[in-house]
């Protein structure tokens, strides 16, 4: 490959059209324009622009006996949809995943509204153009009229929707994140549905880890009540003043929530952590459905 190489490692891979049921060991090489998977009897070249989905850690059920630390790539070949599952050591997979997302997202021109909401209130922020850059687990947006970043670890929710941006209805992601102690909602739209889908996958990387961590956290009704009260009260309000019941008992509950990393001490008092906000969002969804 005479192009600039951005990834080069040895691992195992499986392709949907291979005439065998188990993966092969081979070399995985990637440039900004293409991904090449090469083994003794198999070689496939996948143009970057043909990749429409990337799933980190997700393995199709029929392949779970062979893969653990993996990346699954979905791509188009003519009118057909194909899939490649790639496995390597855990740190190699992490680095390769970042390279994959960078190859698709870096340099994209985005339409952004930041913030569209602040602390639950609609903000009349203008829609501006910004250049997107991926650095580790941070998305940066920079342009003549805007300059901000979103760390994946601060994302508490996101959803795909259609927004009127720059005079047109466009697919967009509405991203809730907590860079400090206040929840912001940022709206992001990219030029194509394919890249929008990959951006959603990128946001899901850290969010999925948060949700997975919460699977092992058990909460009493009293703890959930305190979390929702903190959320409803907003910044600068003492939870003891809005939670009914004994103050000493509420303080004990707060201490337990802090140990579970669901609340933290902010400049204006007790605030929800990103993990705590995911719990509240989930509970509110249950109530509203």
UniProtKB/TrEMBL annotation:
Transmembrane segments: none annotated. The keyword Cytoplasm does not apply. Keywords: Chemotaxis. InterPro entries: CheF1/F2. GO terms for biological process: chemotaxis. Coiled coil: none annotated. It comes from the Archaea. Involved in taxis signal transduction. Interacts with chemotaxis (Che) proteins as well as flagella accessory (Fla) proteins. This is Taxis protein CheF. The lineage of its organism: Archaea, Methanobacteriati, Methanobacteriota, Stenosarchaea group, Halobacteria.
């Amino acid at each position: 490959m005479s192009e600039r190489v951005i990834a080069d490692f040895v691992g195992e891979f499986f392709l949907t059209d291979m005439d065998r049921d188990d993966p092969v060991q081979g070399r995985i090489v990637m440039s900004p324009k293409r991904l090449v998977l090469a083994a003794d009897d198999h070689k496939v070249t996948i143009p970057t622009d043909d990749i429409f989905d990337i799933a980190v850690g997700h393995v199709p059920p029929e392949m779970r006996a062979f893969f653990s630390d993996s990346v699954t790539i979905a791509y188009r070949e003519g009118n057909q949809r194909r899939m490649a599952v790639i496995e390597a050591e855990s740190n190699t997979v992490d680095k390769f995943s970042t390279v994959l997302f960078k190859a698709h997202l870096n340099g994209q021109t985005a339409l952004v509204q930041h913030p569209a909401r602040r602390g639950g209130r609609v903000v009349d922020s203008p829609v501006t153009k910004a250049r997107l850059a991926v650095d580790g687990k941070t998305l940066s947006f920079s342009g003549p009229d805007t300059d901000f970043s979103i760390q994946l670890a601060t994302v508490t929710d996101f959803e795909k929707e259609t927004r009127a941006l720059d005079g047109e209805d466009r697919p967009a992601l509405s991203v809730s994140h907590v860079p400090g102690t206040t929840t912001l909602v940022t709206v992001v739209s990219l030029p194509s549905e394919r890249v929008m889908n990959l951006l959603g996958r990128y946001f899901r990387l850290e969010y999925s880890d948060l949700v997975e961590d919460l699977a092992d956290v058990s909460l009493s009704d009293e703890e959930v009540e305190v979390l929702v009260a903190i959320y409803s009260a907003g910044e600068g309000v003492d939870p003891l003043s809005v939670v009914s019941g004994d103050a000493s008992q509420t303080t004990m509950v707060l201490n337990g929530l802090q140990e579970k990393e669901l609340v933290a001490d902010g400049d204006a008092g007790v605030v929800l952590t990103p993990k705590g906000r995911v719990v509240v969002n989930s509970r509110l969804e249950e109530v509203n459905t």
